[in-house]
């Protein structure tokens, strides 16, 4: 049975996942340029309360994303 997909915005602090696809084609180009490539492992480093930005580790550096941006990156 396949695992349901979830987004980076749904991750818990310390959780790891692998980027599989994007939900927003327009946003995906910007995310690809920032190192969020399909097949790349990401780790949730920090989340702000009340739907604020999240910070992930990807491709060897920390990347802050707005929650709506993070919600477009699907992981497995």
- Number of structural units classed as domains: 1
Q: H/E series, N to C?
A: EEHEEEHE
Strand tally is: 6
What's the name of the CATH homologous superfamily?
A: Ferrous iron transport protein A (FeoA)
CATH C-level class:
Mainly Beta
- The secondary structure category is alpha+beta
Number of helices: 2
Strand order of the largest sheet: 1-6-2-3-4-5
Helicity, in percent? 10-25%
Largest sheet, described in full?
6 strands, antiparallel
Mean pLDDT: 93
Our measurement of the CA-to-CA distance between the termini, rounded to an integer number of angstroms, reads: 13 Å
Shape, per Cα inertia axes: globular
Outline:
With about 80 residues, this protein is of the alpha+beta class.
List the helices and strands and how they pair.
Elements: E1 6-7, E2 16-22, H1 25-33, E3 41-47, E4 54-58, E5 61-65, H2 67-70, E6 73-75
Antiparallel strand pairs: 1-6, 2-3, 2-6, 3-4, 4-5
Describe this structure in words.
This protein has two helices and six strands. It is an alpha+beta fold and 76 residues long. The protein has one domain: Ferrous iron transport protein A (FeoA) (SH3 type barrels, Roll), CATH 2.30.30. Strands 1-6-2-3-4-5 form a six-stranded antiparallel beta sheet. The longest helix is centred in the middle third of the chain and has 9 residues, at 25-33. The protein starts with 5 loop residues before the first strand and ends with a strand. The mean pLDDT is 93.
């Amino acid at each position: 049975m396949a695992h349901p997909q979830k987004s980076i915005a749904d991750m818990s602090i310390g959780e790891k996942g692998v980027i599989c696809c994007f939900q927003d084609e327009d946003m995906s180009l910007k995310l690809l340029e920032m190192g969020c490539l399909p097949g790349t492992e990401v780790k949730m480093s920090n989340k702000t309360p009340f739907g604020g930005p999240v910070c992930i580790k990807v491709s060897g550096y920390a990347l802050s994303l707005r929650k709506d941006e993070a919600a477009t990156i699907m992981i497995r």
